[in-house]
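Q: Convert this sequence to structure tokens.
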Amino acid sequence: MKLGIQILLLWAIAMTSADAQPQRLTVAPLFTDHMVLQRDQPIAVWGWAEPGREVTVTLEDHESSSITDPSGKWRTTLPAMDAGGSHTLRISDGENEIQFEDVVIGEIWLCSGQSNMQYPLVESNGGDEELASVKPSMNVRICLIPKNPQPEPVERIEANWELCKPTSLKDFSAVAWYFAKELRKSDQLKDIPIGLIDSSYGGTRVEAWMSETYLKENFPDAEVKDSFLGNPPSSMYNGMIHALIPYTLRGVLWYQGESNVESPSFYRNLFPGLIEEWRTKWDRPDLPFYFVQLPNFAERFDGAYLTRMREVQDHVSKTVPHTAMAVTYDVGDAFDIHPADKKPVGERLGRIARALTYGEDIVHSGPTFKSMATEGSQVRIKFDHAGGGLTPKPDCDPVSGFVVCGEDGLFWNAEARIEGDSLILSSPEVPNPKHVRYAWEGDPEANFYNAEGLPAAPFRTDDFEIEDMQLWKQFPRYTFESSVYRAVVEGDGCLTELRIGEDSFLDSSHILSRGAFYVGVFANPIPLTQFEKAGPTIFEAKNTKQSIRYRFLKDRILIELSNSEREAARFVMVLNSKIESLPMEGELGKPIQAILGESYVEIPALGRFAGPFAEGCPLWEIVLDPGEEKRIELKVGKTDE
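A:
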């Protein structure tokens, strides 16, 4: 028993001695050799040492001291300095000293967000050639923050400033790099060191970059979600942002929103919240915050979600001070949410910074909606940021991408002509126009620019209520009625109604089904947003790769499908769950007669019966190989005829 007590006493003494060991002098992770410190602003420096000890920081002829608090943390501030270097930064607690070499004073931008900010230079268009041209004389230094989701805020992470060279730059953010190169075009910045901090992580929602405390205080009843890879809310803030505060910055670049695209109304509050929290944490209420509007895309997300998310981003740029937005729907990839053309994205962000942060007299935005006036059957639109003049994109005459609607709220393609500083719109289908939309599609065919080559921002003049879970209802419609049936086609190619008398054969009530025919898998439709009423009984919807053409006759509907994509395309038909006739196992691939009440639709062999869908709705699918076309004829009528 006595031996046991002695062992316990020895263990307690050992633990007490370990706890009593002085905390070694350390500094925050962003302070390394080759670092860039922000010019013309007080420079925050912080770290840890033994509690109660005085720590002195020296940079050239500037010196500042701080006493560590009971936890051992210290923080001090050096006075603002002019750009230049190379300098030596010394940190001492009287017994120990840390020294960093080749420290320069310049401009620092924090670059954050999800995969499109993370997208590395080596994988971008022209990345290999760009890397081959990189030289240390460009005087850009980079710091890549490791991916580090954490359940709680952490103070110490791995970080290292590196000189600009191909080996260090290849895995760095392409957008950030091209942003820095655009800054170099400014006379006032051409010789100033530029520091880029890349703290980004693909697949993350905006909630992941906000602290738990802020989310609970400001969104107590909201359902915040895990990110795409399972990273919970606040995890990126905890492991990739918290440790960077309060490193002195010039501003923030942000490229994110794809993972929040299904809830634009919630993002309308979350995104300004993120900006507010970061500005509060850095104690910079005017911290510039420049971000990228989501690019064009049509394969995964319904285009209406993207247009609403872009509208939310546009709203933030107009209502939150010291923010601005780079428009990019013209440089994305309709079939890849990670477009490789990052150069124009970085350059547009750079132009924004040159104009708004550094005060350079340059055009930094494409045309933005200013006013609308109705003139008979025409609409006159005026724009801010017209720059050197309004113009279609080179080799894309005439201007396209505008639609107008009348009192019925149905939008039709509009003819557009430039008249001085205005755009005149008209449509033969809309004799009394009321509202206008521009580039209001996931993958818009829109080509309106200013002379500086910057695209007009998407906009709409209507205030129609659009719920996040009903966004598909925005599409214009074409209705055909014969003496036998009534059919409705949406502007994205979906046949959403086929009614014979009182009997409805299609079920478009489910968000994933949308209607009878569409391209893509259930959760990832490809909208066919280019639509045309080719005649009184002919309607066609298409994108660059697929098309659906309807010809409505008295007792039948002819449907022509085509696919010129490099991959197979899937067309789906969803019928009303009350249909009485269903194919049996031995009848697959054969024509059937779907009966409902006293009416029928004769359906040809559509491919394979995919079984019941939501709420028992029978579902068929057709798969078209690359380059394949198919013609379908639906016969309709009454069973007693």
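The mean pLDDT is 85.
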